[in-house]
Specification:
It is a single chain. This protein is an alpha/beta fold. The chain has eleven helices and 14 strands. It has a seven-stranded mixed beta sheet with strand order 1-2-13-12-14-11-10, with helices on both faces. Strands 5-4-8-3-9 form a five-stranded parallel beta sheet, sandwiched between helices. The chain has a two-stranded antiparallel ribbon with strand order 6-7. Strand 4, helix 4 and strand 5 form a beta-alpha-beta unit. The termini are close together. The N terminus and C terminus are likely disordered.
């Protein structure tokens, strides 16, 4: 990935202290440092969005209208589903007929299909596991989320069927209950179903709910883990999530709450630990509420932090700041979802941290430019 500064980088004296412990330091206000891809617009996305024409082109089998008419359906969930239902029904009927035929020939009852919950990692297709690639290539039907990159979908074989079931703020193409029923219906019809999820399916991916539902219905479920965003993005930035003498634990926190559920930020009191690393998924909208709560519960205002938009992809943008400045700097950078936030002293170990030594900083920038 080729990365350069979106604005000219400010130079830092090698004599400035590089944080290597969690001991308090005299406060010096850090300037913001933002990195982004050389050839990518910050508004483009490697992921499947609600208004993605390429998604509709991949799913022409579910529509009776021409591609030229798809644009008018982007924001019309009921119309989209109505268009898809007839073809979904036809596919189910074809699968069931094939299963019954095979069962008759074998003079036995054909068993149900299987469902694989597959994690695709944070976005870079090269971070896929070999097992995930094999599952994708064998799938009859793939139900995929918004944060599955378009590059990953290129691995799907031509005769397999793709169905988008992604969610984003203000747009749910399917409810979770509808996703459950789709998985069950196609598995019962004998299909080899793959449920593609960004990151790891069991880390804020609702994979546990889908697995539990299907197993209760007697469907075989296999979970193929993916590199969760925290690991993939931290590695990209050279941030160790744990480090002897600096962070003895790491905590994953979701910035979203279940509909009607408790505000997820109530855990801020326990999460404000200077000896731990806090990673916030889906926390862009709740960051302005989280930061003051963390500081009010004792996390130092100068704690290093980083916010990463579309991590590990060519469109990655990264903002480093101290905790007290993070909300304002993220707002100034106009980061959008998906953005991962890492808070803790380990962030200062990154060669891109503004207080890194001059030698480390130059080497880091050169390594990113040649990738």
């Amino acid at each position: 990935m080729a990365i350069a500064a979106s604005k000219p980088l400010r130079h830092f004296s090698p004599s400035l202290p590089h944080i290597s412990s969690n001991k308090p330091k005299s406060h010096v206000r850090l300037p913001r440092v933002t990195f982004q891809a050389l050839s990518s617009s910050s508004t483009s996305s490697p992921f499947t969005e609600a208004n993605s024409l390429s998604r509709y082109q991949r799913e022409t089998w579910t529509h009776n209208e021409s591609t030229s008419n798809f644009r008018s359906n982007f924001d019309d969930k009921s119309n989209e589903i109505a268009l898809q239902l007839p073809e979904l029904k036809k596919l189910l009927e074809a699968l069931r007929a094939s299963r019954e035929k095979e069962g008759g020939q074998l003079d036995s009852t054909a068993g149900p299909g299987r469902v694989a919950l597959v994690g695709t990692g944070p976005g870079d297709p090269e971070l896929l596991t070999v097992k995930a690639v094999r599952a994708i290539e064998k799938a009859d039907l793939i139900l995929y989320d918004r944060l599955v990159s378009n590059d990953v979908l290129e691995l799907v074989r031509p005769d397999a069927r793709l169905l988008y079931v992604g969610k984003t703020a203000g747009y749910h193409s399917r409810t979770q209950e509808e996703i459950h029923q789709l998985l069950l219906s196609f598995a019962e019809a004998g299909a080899n179903v793959v449920r593609l999820k960004g990151g790891d399916p069991l880390v804020f991916g609702r994979g546990g709910e889908e697995m539990d539902f299907l197993q209760q219905q007697g469907i075989r479920v296999e979970v193929i883990p993916g590199i969760t965003s925290a690991s993939g993005i931290a590695a990209e930035l050279g941030v160790p999530l744990t480090h002897r003498g600096i962070a003895n634990s790491v905590r994953f926190l979701t910035g979203h709450s279940r509909n009607g559920g408790t505000d997820p930020l109530y855990v801020a009191e326990n999460a404000a630990d200077p000896d731990s690393t806090l990673v916030v998924y889906m926390g862009l909208s709740t960051l302005p509420a989280l930061v003051p709560k963390l500081m009010s519960h004792g996390l130092p205002a100068e704690t290093p932090a980083v916010a990463v938009e579309r991590g590990t992809t060519p469109q990655q943008r990264t903002v480093f700041a101290e905790l007290q400045d993070l909300v304002n700097e993220v707002k100034l950078a106009e980061l959008v979802s998906p953005t991962l936030i890492i808070i803790g002293n380990v962030v200062a170990l990154s060669p891109y941290w503004p207080y890194s030594s001059g030698e480390n900083k130059v080497a880091a920038q050169e390594s990113m430019l040649i990738r």
